[in-house]
Amino acid sequence: MAIPVRPRLLAALAPTFLGCLLVQVAPAAGTPQKAFNLTWNSINFKTILEWKPKPMDYAYNVEISSGSKWKIKCFLITDTECDLTDETVQDVHLTYQARVLSVPRNNTYLEEPPFANAPDFLPYRDTKLGKPVIQHFKQVGKELNVTVEDSPTAVRRNGTFLTLRDVFGKDLSYTLHYQKESSSRAKPANTNTNNFTIPLEQAKGYCFTVQAVIRSRKDNQQSSQSNMECSDEWDSIMGETLIIVGAVVFVVIIFFILLSVYLCKCKKGRAGQQRKENSPLRSA
């Protein structure tokens, strides 16, 4: 059997229930939320820490450390990213820790604010390799020559930005993927320098891309492929033709030189013989 509730009693209790509800909701609306999905986004040592969510009525502080002391890098920001490049390029062989603290916008917090830790970050191991650039290429007949330009990095020494080769040294290599223009199957070629010399099957046009590679890594070994470049089939045919023509011209020149020497010797020999034959007649 339902217990009857008097209207006057409900009216008296309503303000109390409403007040309790507001007390519970108001702090939740103004309480900073802990960050999540902390991710390092680093390419050629340009390093940015990203996270979620977008803050509502609060802000973020970002701290970084390579040892026991924390250093604030981004203070009371409402973005969800913080550029930590200046810290991480000081020594790319150190392991860095970072954390994101959620704080009120006036930065007053009686207790330790909620924070989230990012995964450890070792720049030399974890930064991704940027897309390389093909600096120069030339195909002559059945030989393709390609030169790759080392990408610049965010690492600076004595006021100069270092290249990937400056930072990684012998750990850096390149892979060239090349194929005939009419084919979809690419062949790989590797080099520990910046130059490729590829013997080709035919003097036809070829297309190719390049990737930077750090083989000592377990993850993030390869960069994305460079923009595709293609050699001109007509240039390659003309190149081979010029080589053949040049060889023929060289042989012809040598032939005429030898022929001239031979004829000259023959002429001298005949002249000498005529002198000998005419000498007795003069003496008589």
TrEMBL record:
The keyword Zinc does not apply. It comes from the Eukaryota. Keywords: Blood coagulation, Disulfide bond, Glycoprotein, Hemostasis, Lipoprotein, Membrane, Palmitate, Signal, Transmembrane, Transmembrane helix. Residues 1-30 form the signal peptide. Residues 127-231 form the Interferon/interleukin receptor domain. Coiled coil: none annotated. InterPro entries: FN3_dom (IPR003961), FN3_sf (IPR036116), Ig-like_fold (IPR013783), Interferon/interleukin_rcp_dom (IPR015373), Tissue_factor (IPR001187), Type-II_Cytokine-TF_Rcpt (IPR050650). It holds the Pfam family Tissue_fac. Residues 16-108 form the Fibronectin type-III domain. The keyword ATP-binding does not apply. It is a single-pass type I membrane protein. The chain crosses the membrane at residues 242-264. It is found in: Membrane. Interacts with HSPE; the interaction, inhibited by heparin, promotes the generation of activated factor X and activates coagulation in the presence of activated factor VII. PANTHER family: INTERFERON/INTERLEUKIN RECEPTOR, TISSUE FACTOR. Initiates blood coagulation by forming a complex with circulating factor VII or VIIa. The [TF:VIIa] complex activates factors IX or X by specific limited proteolysis. TF plays a role in normal hemostasis by initiating the cell-surface assembly and propagation of the coagulation protease cascade. Belongs to the tissue factor family. This is Tissue factor.
